[in-house]
Design brief:
mainly alpha, 12 helices, disordered N terminus
Length: 229
Amino acid sequence: MKIKFNKQIFKISFVIFVLLAVGILCWVIGKPLVKFASEPEKFRIWVDSNGIWGRIAYIGMMIMQIVAAFLPGEPFEMVAGYAFGAIEGTILCFLASSLGSVMVLLFVRRFGMKFVSLFFKKEQIESVKFLRSSPKRILLFALIFILPGTPKDLLCYFAGVTDIKMWILILICSFGRIPAIVTSTIGGDALGSKSYILAIIVFAITVLISLSGVSIYKVISFRHNKNEK
């Protein structure tokens, strides 16, 4: 008897598989990683004892953080600066965030808004819908994404359901994270080298920039969503 292939069943099964995989990763890897984030000195010792494999594991952890969406990225970026130094930490974070963003975009392009709604509430999705309809969506998306403090995971997921070309989205979602990564890794490196005054200055500047970024994002979001009503 020939079994008919059902695309809908396959899609649902695949989404369930992805969610289970993410859940397992969060439990097996994410839990220790959160502990490492709160105990950066232990993470540095762990990295030194594992060499290249420690770096590969860190990249995998960062990719998981981006795909899982609900885990905050800043502590992991700070830990990278603490464990690897500002330069290497930035490179590793950039590589991992780029790969994670590509994975997210590919998943969303394949499964659409239903996949996005698995990770974000309806209100969150509604707040960025103007990026789908605005004639200046590429410029707006790039501007909002590069600002520290904006919801980059939400933006990355929602970007996949827009009609913006894939290569443009990959560039924005990769390079747009650099300002936030750099400030976090520099701060983490300062803590690692016990340059506490520098660390305080970096974190204070980061907070101010992030608050400004959030304010700009809210103004842009409010104006465009108001015009669409």
